[in-house]
């Protein structure tokens, strides 16, 4: 007779929220941690409020069952903590969500976006025109840095993994909302899947989208949601 699977207990779940739009987002400009630190645009603030409204039914003190207004988040548990990148666009996105949930926002530096060096504020086409060799190297190797001493994807993955491990230890068995950026969120998904670094270029992550990863006691992880924008519709 086949033995039943082991009881791994309640997983620790990270609900991953990309920040709302900034003025640079629709222009598709590199916007990392080494640039101007833009705030949300009016559209971005509206997106943050929409996500906050969708997550509001998960507030524990309402006496409800913890179900979210988002069908994709059903079964992920009640959000018990909110953690944000230190950059302004994430803190602005996190604040209305945390207020609706009745929680404080904790800052985690490891969730900040990549430092894109001299590429900050430029479009992909502008970088290709001005720094073609550096761009090709960056696209071909996770160890390559952007022009001007920015961060490699390898370096970002190391600090994101360290932040992940610290948060898992601090919030074992709980559901935590992490408000971050494209590269850190894609990195968390990539690491959960055991996918190669080039998979970062094969994921779409919209502004104010939600993703989710569940982490189990045996060290395995499961991607539960990716790029869900239903809260914005």
Automatic annotation (TrEMBL):
InterPro entries annotated for this entry?
His_Pase_superF_clade-1, His_PPase_superfam, PGM_Phosphatase
Family matches, as SMART domains? PGAM
Q: Name one Pfam family in it.
A: His_Phos_1
Q: Name one GO molecular function term.
A: phosphatase activity
Record protein name field: Histidine phosphatase family protein
Cellular component annotations (GO), alphabetically ordered: cytoplasm
The organism encoding this protein is Streptomyces aurantiacus
For the region Disordered, give the residue spans: 22-46
């Amino acid at each position: 007779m086949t033995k039943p699977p082991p009881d791994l207990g309640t997983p620790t779940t990270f609900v991953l929220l990309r920040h709302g739009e900034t003025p640079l987002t629709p222009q598709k400009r590199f916007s990392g941690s080494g640039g101007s630190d833009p705030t949300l645009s009016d559209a971005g603030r509206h997106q943050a409020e929409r996500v906050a409204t969708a997550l509001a039914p998960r507030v524990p003190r309402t006496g409800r069952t913890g179900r979210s207004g988002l069908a994709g988040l059903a079964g992920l548990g009640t959000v018990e903590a909110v953690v944000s990148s230190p950059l302004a666009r994430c803190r602005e996105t996190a604040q209305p969500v945390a207020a609706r949930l009745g929680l404080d926002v904790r800052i985690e530096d490891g969730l900040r976006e990549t430092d894109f060096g001299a590429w900050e504020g430029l479009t992909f086409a502008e970088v290709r025109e001005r720094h073609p060799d550096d761009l090709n190297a960056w696209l071909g190797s996770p160890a390559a840095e952007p022009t001007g001493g920015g961060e490699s994807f390898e370096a970002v993955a190391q600090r994101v993994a360290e932040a992940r491990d610290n948060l898992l230890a601090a919030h074992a068995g709980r559901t935590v909302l992490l408000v971050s950026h494209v590269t850190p969120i894609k990195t968390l998904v990539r690491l959960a899947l055991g996918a190669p670094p080039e998979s970062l270029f094969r994921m779409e992550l919209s502004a104010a989208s939600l993703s989710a990863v569940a982490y189990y006691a045996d060290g395995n992880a499961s991607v539960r949601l990716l790029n869900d924008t239903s809260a914005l519709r």
